[in-house]
Amino acid sequence: MSASRPQPELTSLHTPYSYFEPLPLDCIFPSNAPLEVEIGCGNGSFLITYAAQNPETNFLGIERLLGRIRKLDRKAKRAGVSNIKIVRVEAAYCVEYMLPPESIHACHIYFPDPWPKKKHWKKRLIAPKFVEQLAVALQLGGRVYLRTDNEPYFEQILQVFGDNKRFQATVAPPELTQIVTHFERSFNAEGISTLRAQYRLREAD
Ligand SMILES: C[S@@+](CC[C@H](N)C(=O)[O-])C[C@H]1O[C@@H](n2cnc3c(N)ncnc32)[C@H](O)[C@@H]1O
Q: Using a 6 Å cutoff on CB, does residue 47 contact ligand 1?
């Protein structure tokens, strides 16, 4: 029988008391600072850099793979970044049921799984229902920043946000644009360029 290696405590991981109630943000973060969320934060390549640049902001990462959360946690500890918490849960579920209404200042979605085969497109995250639910979780004026390498998915992103009257196209600040994510670095090294879109939540008519 082989003994499994003891794992270090995951300081960044927040394990919710309940998956059926909104996250208690005031208990998760020590300060009542603006909240930004990254969906599918992977190994934290974006989140750690951006959180270090913005110590007065709270960051919540949503990621389903524990191995990537472990890597993120190690990197965050090494970088001395403490304004990040991760929840290990499916992203669309989290946005619909666990993010309190009007709680998010900005949402980052970088290289969501593209599901390239047409028969799988229904599994893509960026779809009308998800975008409606994101509008509920965002504060008025809140931003959504998106990147992908996949042209058909980019077309879908433009279509879905374009069809939703609550969102208006906007620009990303240069300090945000300059940060390259882990997947982005690999794609760009292969000569695949990044497609970007960003939106602002406006008042309902
Ligand atoms: C292609 S990777 C991109 C990672 C990172 N954003 C980057 O740009 O380097 C997509 C990430 O999203 C996570 N992911 C995909 N679908 C998810 C879902 N439905 N819920 C939570 N995480 C998801 C994957 O586990 C993976 O870490």
A: no
